[in-house]
Structure formats: structure tokens, C-alpha cells
Design goal:
Length: 364
């Protein structure tokens, strides 16, 4: 180093750096060492360059060591000391790239290491003496997002890309999306397979995320917001009604029906708030039916109907008979086949929705 300072004092004024040292030394010593010396120093400079540059290229190659190249990948290939053989090429639909001297080279299915080995072997066969080849993926091929996302399509892959990030890039899920059943279509050994996925699942190039439309249940009748709602495992009638905003004031909370298609046939059955709901079920909340009580009762008016309601019970709900009531002549006005009929009843007779119970006055 002292000898270099003497022949080139500028060296002493700059902090020591291997690459700079070689460059300055070359510049200073070439003037005194002649042609042979210049060649020697250029050779040394080359070795340092290899030591500085190639590790970065090697790191890039190692990152995709097990990754297999395919159509639409962009590959960068460098051959040390041969600038004309530096190539940055997109793999075509047939899995090839056009490489100088060699023409079309099949790269699909190879790892970058396998591609390096192949090019090294080919170039060494009469083209380049002791070639040193580096290959790495400059830009990966796309991943794809389909189904119930706001902007389906192809998007650039990047290392560490997760399902959640890909869905965000695609604008997020739609209101119809099934959030708990995400799938990835992925090619294994030439065969496309479906893989269950979570939001933190990492993607590979050429993966297709499939977001299916969610299964639905339908709620109609006397609820605040009738419509279809996203099904979720463990859904009950109570939770489905809660999703609609709850019952209306006219709802008959005791009369709930669920219609379900079984073997192609629609079946309707009564349900409670704890009844389980399945995908595509129709939950129907009926309007509250009423019974009307007129005549000689203490509190004439309308009363909510309930299954099993008798004349005796409805009279009790109306406060009972007055002193002037002719209890034995109590009748029901009921619509039968579109016509109103008057039916003489006893106290244990059952009433039906919309019946009108009439208690006449006694003549005595």
C-alpha cells in the first residue's frame, strides 16, 4: 500500500476500499508497468468484480432455487465476461426463450439452477471457454383471482404474497362471497389440483384463487328486512331473524315455518327459534293472527291467536262474561269457503285465526 501511495498520492486522501483500491492502483501502476502489467491488473480487477457482483446474483438465484420456470416468467441470464450473452427474456407460450448462439432454448419446467447447468454445458461445447453462467427470475408470472371479488383478473406475483394480500389487490370480496371456503387451483406435476386456503396461505406463480358465491338462506314475512342472507355453519332460526333486524310488530313469534327442498321436493315444517337452518332454506315468519271477542264480555276487543286456543280461554283473556251474558248461546263467526258462517260452540271448542267470538245478551 505504501508503494501505491508513492506512485499515486491521491490514494492516501480517500478511505480504503477494495474495489476503489484496485481501480486507482490500476490507473497509477499501468503507467509504470507497461502492457503486461496492465493485463495483470485488469485480471485482478475482474476477480474483485466477480467477488463483489456474483454473490448478489447467487442470492437471487437461490431465492428461486426450487421454483420451476413457466410461460410468462421473465428470466435474466448473464455469462461473465460475455456482454453479448446477457439476456432478459420472457418465456413464451411454448416454454422457450431465444438465447444468442443457441437459438430457442426450452426452459419451462427447469429450475434456475438446472437452466444454469444446461446453458453452461451448451456454451462450453464450442462457443465459450469455461463459461460462468448465472440465471434468475427477474419477474414472476401472474397469479389469478376469480369469482366473488370486485376486480377479478391476473396480478403480478411477488415473493411472500398471501391470499389475503391478493384479495386486497383484487379489490376485496363482494357481498356475495363465501368468506369461509377459499380455494386455490394449483398445478402439481402437470395436474391441476384444488387446495383449501386460508387468508395467510402463501401463493405460488400461476395459482388461481377461487372465491365462490356464498350459500344463502332466505327470510321472509314479518321481519324488518326480508331477503337473502349469507349462510354460516351453525345458523339457527333465531340468528337468521336477528340478521334481518328482528321481528316486526305484526309478527307471530310462535308461528315460524321453514321450507326445505329434500330430494327435489319442497317440505315445510314448523320451527322454533332454536331450529337449525341449512343452506337454501326459506324461513317464513307469519303475520300475527288475531281472535275478536264481541258482546257480553268485560273487555271486548282483539286478542293474539295461539295454537290450541279454546272459547273458554279467549273468554278468560277478555275478562270473562258479564252478568248479562248468555254463555250457552256463544257463537263463532267464521269464514268457510269464502262465506261467513255462524257456528254454535261450547266452551271447550277450538277457535281458529280471524274467528269472531260473539257472546249474546241474556233475555232474562
Amino acid at each position: 500500500m505504501e508503494r501505491v501511495k508513492e506512485s499515486c498520492p491521491a490514494v492516501a486522501e480517500v478511505p480504503y476500499c477494495t474495489a476503489w483500491f484496485v481501480k486507482v492502483t490500476t490507473r497509477c501502476e499501468v503507467r509504470t508497468m507497461g502492457t503486461a502489467g496492465a493485463r495483470w491488473w485488469k485480471w485482478m480487477l475482474g476477480l474483485v468484480s466477480v467477488g463483489v457482483v456474483l454473490p448478489y446474483l447467487a442470492d437471487a438465484a437461490a431465492a428461486s432455487h426450487s421454483y420451476r420456470l413457466g410461460s410468462n416468467d421473465v428470466v435474466r441470464i448473464q455469462v461473465y465476461g460475455e456482454e453479448d450473452l446477457t439476456v432478459e427474456s420472457k418465456v413464451d407460450g411454448d416454454g422457450n426463450i431465444n438465447f444468442p448462439l443457441l437459438g430457442m432454448v426450452a426452459v419451462a419446467g427447469k429450475t434456475t439452477q438446472e437452466l444454469q447447468d444446461y446453458l453452461t454445458s451448451r456454451l462450453a461445447s464450442g462457443y465459450v471457454r469455461a463459461p460462468r453462467v448465472t440465471a434468475y427470475v427477474f419477474k414472476y408470472r401472474n397469479i389469478y383471482v376469480s369469482g366473488e371479488v370486485r376486480s377479478p383478473g391476473g396480478y403480478s406475483y411477488e415473493e411472500g404474497l398471501s391470499v389475503q394480500k391478493a384479495l386486497t389487490i383484487a379489490g376485496g370480496l363482494t357481498d356475495k362471497a363465501e368468506r369461509n371456503d377459499l380455494r386455490i387451483l394449483r398445478v402439481f406435476n402437470g395436474t391441476e389440483q384444488t387446495v383449501p386456503a386460508k387468508l395467510d396461505t402463501l401463493l405460488l406463480p400461476d395459482d388461481t384463487i377461487v372465491v365462490a358465491e356464498g350459500q344463502r338462506v332466505y327470510v321472509s314475512g314479518e321481519v324488518k328486512t326480508p331477503g337473502r342472507y349469507l349462510y354460516e355453519k351453525g345458523l339457527t332460526v333465531h340468528k337468521a331473524i336477528t340478521m334481518t333486524g328482528g321481528f316486526t310488530e305484526k309478527a307471530d313469534k310462535a308461528t315460524i315455518h321453514v321450507t326445505r327442498v329434500v330430494n327435489g321436493v319442497a317440505q315445510t315444517r314448523e320451527a322454533t327459534l332454536e331450529t337449525s337452518v341449512l343452506p337454501d332454506d326459506f324461513v317464513v315468519i307469519s303475520q300475527l293472527h288475531k281472535i275478536y271477542v264481541n258482546g257480553e264480555v268485560k273487555k271486548a276487543g282483539d286478542y293474539p291467536y295461539e295454537k290450541g286456543l279454546t272459547i273458554h280461554k279467549i273468554i278468560t283473556m277478555a275478562g270473562g262474561f258479564t252478568d248479562k251474558a248468555a254463555a250457552g248461546r256463544t257463537t263463532i263467526l267464521r269464514i268457510v269457503n269464502g262465506e261467513e258462517q255462524s257456528l254454535r260452540v261450547t266452551l271447550d271448542a277450538l277457535v281458529l285465526p280471524e274467528d269472531i267470538v260473539v257472546v249474546p245478551r241474556s233475555f232474562f
